[in-house]
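Aim 2, interim progress: modelling of the NAP-bound target.
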Amino acid sequence: MQPAISVLGMGRMGAALAHALIKAGHPTTVWNRTPARAAPLAAAGAEVAASVRNAVAASQITIVNVSDYQATQGLLRDKEVAGALAGKLIIELTSGTPDGAREAHGWAQRQGARYLDGAILATPDFIGTEAGTLLVSGPSGVFEEGRAVLAALGGNVQFIGEDPGLANALDSAVLALMWGALFGTLQAIAVARAEAIDLGVVAKQWTATAPVIDGLVSDLIRRSADKRYAADSETLSSVSPHYGAFRHLVELMEARGIDRTITDGYEAIFRRAIDAGHLHDDFASMSLFMKRPA
Ligand SMILES: NC(=O)c1ccc[n+]([C@@H]2O[C@H](COP(=O)([O-])OP(=O)(O)OC[C@H]3O[C@@H](n4cnc5c(N)ncnc54)[C@H](OP(=O)(O)O)[C@@H]3O)[C@@H](O)[C@H]2O)c1
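Predicted structure of the complex, ligand included:
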């Protein structure tokens, strides 16, 4: 018999989590602020709790997936709910900051509850599939307790470390990578539109160039980890050619009236590195200039 699980929050993601738990055979109790959103889960076999307190009381493990930590606090930091959580496991899968997770862990401990913090690196359609990725941090013994339940939510559950803030920290780092690509794509679309290039052609070039960019990203991470900033025989590209090509992009954007908010940020970082004498160093030397200047 699988352990009973309660899930708070039946938004797009919470509903996917609850469906996966039901599919894996967990008796599942759900609660949502707007009751109508819980109705499809009742049809799928979940119990719908009338209150947060009833939901938490129904299981030894409560998964929370609402919009943000403030919403979670509004649900859990009630005397009766907190009392019902004592001796139980909270798995917070709402997105948040590292400090928010650390604070929530401390609060849970003071209520006598155990706590894991997770970040979901997937859209709802990946939940319950082999490709579903969840990053989890918190006490390793508590992770072992939650491991089987988490495995029902995705085939790629990764324990990141004992510090409860680490899952959110890594999540933010990966999202920074993702938005780099997405905002870069927005710029590419703007340039293509300004020069009347069909977007299908841009898509083809992305496919052709993706392995090159992949290689550059991996190399940048590796060299930054090794602090190999000076150019050497393995350097793929120093700052200089990147900056030259970047200036061509800026000139084109300027000429076509394309918004420069993003490239102004790139320019500022290039300038800091170049002014500090890194023009002919490996591009990885730019990683030294990502802290806010004093
Ligand atoms: N969707 C994704 O692809 C994805 C991927 C990774 C992580 N996540 C994370 O998963 C979480 C939920 O995302 P979602 O896509 O499911 O969002 P969503 O569809 O907008 O659902 C938000 C949920 O939060 C609830 N909620 C909001 N404020 C609340 C409050 N003050 N008190 C109680 N409940 C409240 C909503 O209840 P009502 O129905 O009553 O409004 C709803 O259940 C977020 O932290 C998000 O960052 C989502």
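The first strand starts at residue 5 and ends at 8. Residues 198-289 form a domain with the N-(1-d-carboxylethyl)-l-norvaline Dehydrogenase; domain 2 fold (CATH 1.10.1040.10).
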